[in-house]
Amino acid sequence: MTLNRPIRPRGLISLVPMIDVMLILLVFFMVTSTYLNLDMIPAVEPSEGAASSTTPAPAGTLMIRLGADGVPVLRGTALDQDTLRATLASAIVEEPLTQVVILPSGAAQTQALITVMDSAALAGVTRLRVLRLEAAQ
């Protein structure tokens, strides 16, 4: 005699709960994340009449280009690390709020960028920015 057992229905695997959880996580991370506040370099300095008397005058900006070879270039002159540090230190002595902007090439090594940043820190630079320019497509 054979017993016929009822066949259990197979459990249906549904992806809907997983999608719901992923959507909740996505919304959570979007709401709690912070975005970078990138300071833009002013193209033109404000006129004296438009500037308020309570705001300090903007300090100078030095732009250092970092080529693919890792050599920093300031005002069109390639500098070694000691000369760069001395130049930045003298600029900081003249104007303590001098902003230094580093424009690294996409092919530059990270170590070269860190070396330039270290030189700036040792020279006393407190306002340092690193900008990466991308080509327009």
TrEMBL record:
<feature type="transmembrane region" description="Helical">
    <location>
        <begin position="12"/>
        <end position="36"/>
    </location>
</feature>
<keyword id="KW-0614">Plasmid</keyword>
<protein>
    <submittedName>
        <fullName>Biopolymer transporter ExbD</fullName>
    </submittedName>
</protein>
<dbReference type="Pfam" id="PF02472">
    <property type="entry name" value="ExbD"/>
</dbReference>
<keyword id="KW-0653">Protein transport</keyword>
<keyword id="KW-0812">Transmembrane</keyword>
<comment type="similarity">
    <text>Belongs to the ExbD/TolR family.</text>
</comment>
<keyword id="KW-0813">Transport</keyword>
<keyword id="KW-1003">Cell membrane</keyword>
<dbReference type="InterPro" id="IPR003400">
    <property type="entry name" value="ExbD"/>
</dbReference>
<keyword id="KW-1133">Transmembrane helix</keyword>
<keyword id="KW-0472">Membrane</keyword>
